[in-house]
Design brief:
single chain, alpha+beta, Amidase signature (AS) enzymes, Hypothetical upf0131 protein ytfp, 11-stranded mixed beta sheet, 3-stranded antiparallel beta sheet, 19 helices, 19 strands
């Protein structure tokens, strides 16, 4: 099929150039006329599709954000009336209602076309551990597709659907993205509801999204990132506990592991593409900072070498104890080992993880995000079958720590190997930086010099992705809170960040208020007859803004400050009565200029 993005399909529908029924007919024809890569476990029948099509024909394409967009669902996520197998036929059940996230997509107008193949019970990063057959890579079926969300990734890469859902516990939403030249969103744990998902490790799982572009991924995330009170592990979008409140996609610091800590398993071509991606980020305004990756790697080893595998055992305990032969042999081996760890082992591992988490927290004082390969290399299906455990482990080198340490992550295409197979990188940051990563990743994807897609054409020129920043509040400061001045610690101590130096509109009188130390200015709005005042704009994390404002003494307060460009932001203002008897410095228009003028007298 011709590859079409969500944006392109929506434009065609809304312009009357294409009908949803006609397009879905083409989609189903492509899905049903040969599956030589073992992508699908179940596809919907015409009768099952009909209710979705009838609803769309009665709707306005402009009123549904995902009108008529076909998507695939990893077969450990429920779709009402369609069996969920988790790639184990004996385990299958037919749910009466769809998973929360699936229902959100349907409500937005998207149309599910089927359930996709996966590493059984989402245990694997290769896409070969399935009784439905090994899923072949979209670019060369002799190579692994990546897993466990194998079919979901390949269906998008081949243009059969516009986007798909996977899950990600240890890398299942990032490795398949890298191996199939896709964007893969690994959201913050709990940002997307896990209601209606067969758990792997319930405390770590998240639904993931595969798409061709970051713009498409953003549209899907907008539809599904809704708090689900029925999911005990759901979390509402929140202010990041680490970091600085937001990442500016045009100016940021990014961490890169020490050279000796990078692992490409002998793949020099992958190493070169990673170095190119780092240079590309620098060219976009990023500043590379070398970081110690060791605590991240130690945390990664805990996922399978520690007691978290017991969560996988717990999720299907009754089934594996009564029907062990129903499991794929390597899957049975891995999950079955989860019966061994004790409660004491679990606590010991938690203590170790917390110690490692504390060590990694220090990294976020010096960087906004980090970049790693999504995987250090890629293998053929034959190679993986010959050494299924070790090669799978190799593919998790850069992924297994992510959910244990509670990060948001985004896999982005980063070029092609000489073999013609894709290579990808992952950007990651603390929890709730999902929107920021999409904005940076969008610029990185657009900057890629090798932009071949499966359909051999450039990416569509969608509007750049803009992060939706609800986590920060801008504040204009004009005096002692400016950078390097005595009260600036009240901002920097709350992880606020300076984002601009500017001036106010010429509508203010400027005074040195009595009192101190430290001395403070007062900016009084007068409209006509006023002057422009030097300002700094700082962004304060929203959950720390209240405590900042509470410490502001009268006659100062926070109001709207008009900027020279006509915009308005919250900022320091002074009551007119408070400036009575104060020294006026309006003609200087700058607190720093006043400090420099008085310096000889101090």
């Amino acid at each position: 099929m011709t590859m079409q993005t969500i944006t392109e399909l929506l434009q065609a529908y809304r312009a009357g150039e294409r009908s949803a029924r006609a397009h879905l007919g083409e989609v189903m024809n492509a899905v049903r006329t040969g599956d030589d890569r073992n992508i699908w476990i179940t596809t919907l029948s015409d009768d099952q599709l009909e209710p979705y099509l009838r609803r769309l024909e009665q709707a306005n394409p402009a009123e549904l954000p995902l009108y008529g967009i076909p998507f695939a669902i990893k077969d450990n996520i429920d779709l009402a009336g369609v069996p969920t197998t988790a790639a184990c036929p004996q385990y299958a059940y037919t749910p009466e209602r769809s998973a929360f996230v699936v229902q959100r997509l349907i409500d937005a107008g998207a149309v599910p076309v089927g359930k996709t193949n996966l590493d059984q019970f989402a245990t694997g990063l290769v896409g070969t551990r399935s009784p439905f057959g090994a899923c072949g890579n979209a670019f060369d079926p002799a190579y692994v597709s990546g897993g466990s969300s194998s079919g979901s990734a390949v269906a998008v890469a081949l243009g059969q659907v516009a986007f798909s859902l996977g899950t990600d516990t240890a890398g299942s939403g990032r490795v398949p993205a890298a191996f199939n030249n896709l964007v893969g969103v690994k959201p913050t744990r709990g940002l997307l509801s896990a209601s209606g998902v067969v758990p792997a490790c319930r405390t770590l799982d998240t639904i993931s999204v595969f798409a061709m572009t970051t713009a498409d991924a953003q549209q899907v995330l907008d539809a599904v990132a809704v708090y689900d009170a029925e999911d005990a592990y759901a979390r509402p979008d929140d202010v990041p506990a680490l970091g600085h409140g937001r990442i500016r996609p045009e100016s940021f610091r990014f961490g890169v592991p020490r050279p000796e800590q990078l692992e490409f398993f002998g793949d020099g071509d992958a190493q070169a593409l990673f170095q190119q991606a780092v240079k590309r980020l620098e060219g976009l305004g990023g500043e590379a900072v070398t970081v110690d990756f060791q605590p991240f790697l130690e945390a990664a080893r805990l996922l399978y070498e520690g007691p978290w595998v017991s969560e996988r055992f717990t999720a299907i305990r009754k089934f594996i104890e009564t029907e062990p032969e129903a499991l794929f042999p390597v899957t049975r081996q891995i999950i079955g080992s989860g019966a061994a760890p004790t409660a004491a082992d679990a606590f010991s591992a938690q203590y170790r993880l917390q110690a490692l988490r504390r060590r990694t927290e220090a990294v976020w004082d010096s960087v906004d995000l980090m970049i790693t390969p999504s995987a250090g290399t890629i293998y053929t299906i034959e190679q993986v079958n010959a050494d299924p455990v070790q090669l799978n482990s190799n593919l998790g080198y850069y992924t297994n720590f992510m959910n244990l340490l509670d990060y948001s992550a985004l896999a982005v295409p980063a070029g092609f190997l000489p073999s013609g197979l894709p290579f990808g990188v992952t950007l990651f940051a603390p929890a709730f930086y999902d929107q920021d990563l999409l904005a940076v990743g969008d610029r990185l994807q657009r900057a890629g010099v090798d932009r071949l897609a499966t359909a051999e054409r450039d990416l569509p020129q969608d509007e750049p992705v803009q992060a939706h920043h609800t986590h920060v509040i801008p504040v204009a400061v004009c005096g002692a809170h400016m950078s390097g001045l005595p009260l600036n610690h009240q901002l920097s101590g709350r992880k606020a960040r300076q984002v601009a130096s500017t001036r106010s509109a010429p509508e203010y009188r400027f005074f040195v208020l009595p009192g101190g130390p430290p001395e403070r200015p007062g900016m009084v709005h007068v409209g006509a007859g006023g002057a422009s005042v030097e300002l700094e704009i700082w962004e304060v994390p929203a959950d720390r803004f209240g405590s900042f404002v509470a410490g502001i003494p009268a006659p100062l307060g926070i109001g709207k400050v008009r900027l020279a460009d006509g915009g308005e932001v919250p900022g320091f203002i002074c009551e007119a009565a408070g400036a009575e008897g104060a020294t006026e410095i309006t003609e200087l228009g700058s607190w720093r200029a006043w400090l420099e003028r008085r310096q000889p007298n101090t």
